[in-house]
Task: inverse folding
């Protein structure tokens, strides 16, 4: 047992990568943190993590998923309800319990990392799910083309940005999890812009063109696909998925993007314009790929991850 996976045992990506690891004669350890603390029993004693599984035999881990860094929903409920009500008290207890769970799990995974094992991707890198502005800064510094971007809670800044761009805009959550939507005239009206007082929003110049998803493992581009959809945000609305070749500049940009974001494994979303130019939208530290592999009948991403884990764990590749 030299390879391990952290993630839900029923997750399609976990199942697919585990199957490819088994083809090399290894039975991967799967640590499902979703069952903690009700089911999974975990401990950290003097900096050493322990559970029912033998973690010491694992030399390389694929992190598919970790719990959210903050219990956002419980926090909102605790702050918004009447402090004297039973609902508010329950919300505060849920918030406190969630905070303790997440603190423990962060320490548990950190202790695993301190033992010298390889992580794909490291826990610190996984945090880029929720830190889009820092990631965009890293991409710009590496010379990777990204859309003009504004993050703000200031209505005047949004109007200035729209005037400067002079074309279609989109908006999306700063911490991910929601759909990307096109900015309408109504969105630029005072009633909608007043909602920025509740939370800031990320705005970008819309990049027209074809949706391209690229997977990079280590320094290698292992697969690239065009996602055909009639929707601006194609997630859940894919009408076709076609394996395609990247241009030399696109491939180079994807390699530089992976390196800039310090990701061993990433799924990169880019838009290819009609004139052949392109922009990178995001580097995902734990992208989904199993559904694409089922649709195309090949498993290049699962196989590449399994091979990388075996190489990192010092195991020979046998198939």
Result:
């Amino acid at each position: 047992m030299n390879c391990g996976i952290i993630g839900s045992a029923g997750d399609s990506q976990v199942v697919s990568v585990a199957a490819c690891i088994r083809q090399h004669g290894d039975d991967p350890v799967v640590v499902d943190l979703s069952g903690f603390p009700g089911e999974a029993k975990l401990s950290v004693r003097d900096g050493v993590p322990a559970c029912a599984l033998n973690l010491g035999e694992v030399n390389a881990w694929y992190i598919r998923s970790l719990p959210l860094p903050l219990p956002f929903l419980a926090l909102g409920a605790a702050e918004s309800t009447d402090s004297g009500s039973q609902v508010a008290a329950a919300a505060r207890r849920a918030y406190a319990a969630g905070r303790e769970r997440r603190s423990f799990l962060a320490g548990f995974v950190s202790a695993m990392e301190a033992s010298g094992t390889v992580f794909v991707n490291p826990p610190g890198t996984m945090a880029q799910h929720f830190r889009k502005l820092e990631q965009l800064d890293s991409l710009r510094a590496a010379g990777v083309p990204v859309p003009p971007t504004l993050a703000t809670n200031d209505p005047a800044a949004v109007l200035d940005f729209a005037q400067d761009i002079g074309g279609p805009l989109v908006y999306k959550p700063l911490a991910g999890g929601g759909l990307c939507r096109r900015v309408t005239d109504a969105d630029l009206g005072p009633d909608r812009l007043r909602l920025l007082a509740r939370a800031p929003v990320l705005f970008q110049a819309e990049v027209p063109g074809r949706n391209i998803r690229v997977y990079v493992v280590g320094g290698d581009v292992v697969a690239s696909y065009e996602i055909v959809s009639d929707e601006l945000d194609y997630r859940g609305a894919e009408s076709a998925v076609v394996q395609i070749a990247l241009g030399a500049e696109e491939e180079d940009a994807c390699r530089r993007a992976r390196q800039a974001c310090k990701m061993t494994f990433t799924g990169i979303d880019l838009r290819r314009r009609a004139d052949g130019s392109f922009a990178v939208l995001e580097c995902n530290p734990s992208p989904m790929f199993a559904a694409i592999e089922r649709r195309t009948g090949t498993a290049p991403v699962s196989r590449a991850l399994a091979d990388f884990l075996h190489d990192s764990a010092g195991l020979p590749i046998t198939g």
The first helix runs from residue 12 to 22.
